[in-house]
Design brief:
This protein is an alpha+beta fold. The protein has five helices and eleven strands; from the N terminus they run ββαββαββαβαβαβββ. It is elongated, with a radius of gyration of 28 Å.
Amino acid sequence: MANQFQGGRPNPQQKNNKFAKNYGPRRNERIRVPRVRVIGPDGAQVGVMSSAEALALARKYRLDLIEVSPNAEPPVCRILDYGKYLYEEAKKQKSQKASTTKVKEVKLRPHIDRHDYETKMRNAERFLFSGNKLKITMMLRGREMEFKNIAFDIVNRALTDLSHMGHADSEPKLMGKNISVTVSPVAQKLRKLKYSGEDEEIPEEDDSSSDSE
């Protein structure tokens, strides 16, 4: 509490920092550097000029002068409606968040039964359909290391069964007691579900029974 309050009152410096963080980019009269590089309303380079000249030009278009690259030399400003700028930034952040790729994992065992295998493939297909990368892990325990050939065959079979939805980034490899391979999804327009319907819920993780055998 001591770092937030001084003598029972809010710390003004902390309040100002919070305010500055949410205030957004400098614009219009708040831009006080001597010279700026200006980008016009159409996205074309206008050139380097004084801040006063840039603001006057923005006023001529009845728009705002927004500092978009304060650390550039000289700082870069755009002539744009501030509301439109905020909308573009929010849309960009949403797009970046949506494009973040997650890696989902499906675990197999050498003696997996048909039902469990089919469940695994449905989960794997749904992971790839959603745009996630997929890691297929074949777990070998104890004397199961004697069945490496069978284990590789099952992993390669899984790659074949999922070839309509993704492609292996490399050949399956034995690392310690696990055989693993990473699969990347095909282009979105090529993804077609084969083992499940589009209305089925996408699982967060693969929790089918053979993981814990």
